[in-house]
Design goal:
mainly alpha
Length: 267
């Protein structure tokens, strides 16, 4: 498992860095959509296992429409997509057998939550990408989150004794949490310094630390969802890493924070 984890990272990360840094934007946005669709299906499979297949397909298609509206515009069309995400599945349930109609509100609530939890944060990366030097900010985010995750993993293995939140994620420890936070801050400072993302190292360190904390909370949140669903991994799409949600769970909580920072504070 550990070897598969490293092999997957060694193969996938250079391709991802290339796409973000200088690759065709439509390919990068397509990868984001595929990650969003896979994560959304994993979330629905865990939380609403009896959700009808047509509703799942409709949800993924509408998430694609959402990404397309953000990419090609006009932007205000995304609000109509939000409405369609609820209305079209409701029409499906309206003309379904009673057994399905009785679960309409429950299944649709979980589908909508999955869209807000998975698809919307990943779609925000399209908006961040349009910010001045947005591709570098996305790489900054990935560096902080992924190296923070790696630091937490190894610090927990070497020094971890006291459990962080055993009822939600038995494998996580306080040592891992502090090790991950330290790795996030140091990697953020180095990245910011090397690529000149800001004039104030303290600001970059604080941002990296806050993103790292948000990432760890996101990791715990997904662990809570998996535990309630009785599964170990959200899927098997990434060898050594589990499902797509297992790989992007920390990003989902950190992306909106970076977006707000770039909107309010960044030059």
């Amino acid at each position: 498992m550990h070897l598969k984890r490293w092999l997957t990272s060694i193969i996938a990360l250079p391709l991802l860095v290339y796409l973000i840094a200088s690759g065709p934007r439509w390919i990068f946005y397509g990868v984001l959509f595929l990650a969003s669709g896979a994560g959304l299906l994993e979330f629905i499979r865990m939380t609403a296992p009896q959700c009808p297949s047509p509703v799942k397909i409709i949800s993924v298609l509408l998430s694609f429409l959402f990404f397309y509206c953000l990419w090609r515009g006009p932007f205000f069309q995304v609000f109509a997509v939000f409405c369609l995400l609820v209305m079209i599945p409701l029409v499906f349930f309206l003309f379904s057998p009673p057994a399905l109609r009785n679960r309409a509100a429950e299944d649709l609530g979980k589908v909508a939550l999955g869209f807000l939890y998975v698809s919307l944060p990943l779609a925000l990366l399209l908006v961040i990408d349009r910010h001045p030097r947005g591709n570098l900010w996305i790489l900054f985010l990935l560096t902080v989150i992924f190296l923070g995750d790696t630091g937490a993993f190894y610090a927990g293995r070497v020094f971890g004794k006291r459990k962080l939140y055993a009822s939600v994620s038995p494998g996580k420890t306080w040592a891992g949490a502090f090790g991950g936070l330290l790795a996030s801050v140091l990697s953020g400072l180095f990245f910011s310094r090397f690529f000149h993302l800001g004039d104030f190292p303290l600001e970059a360190g604080f941002l990296a630390g806050f993103l790292g904390v948000c990432g760890q909370i996101g990791d715990l949140a997904e662990s809570m969802i998996k535990r309630s669903a009785g599964v170990k991994d959200s899927g098997r799409i990434l060898p050594g890493h589990g499902g797509m949600l297992d790989r992007v769970d920390a990003l989902l909580f950190a992306i909106p924070v970076l977006y707000l920072f770039l909107t309010w504070a960044a030059p």
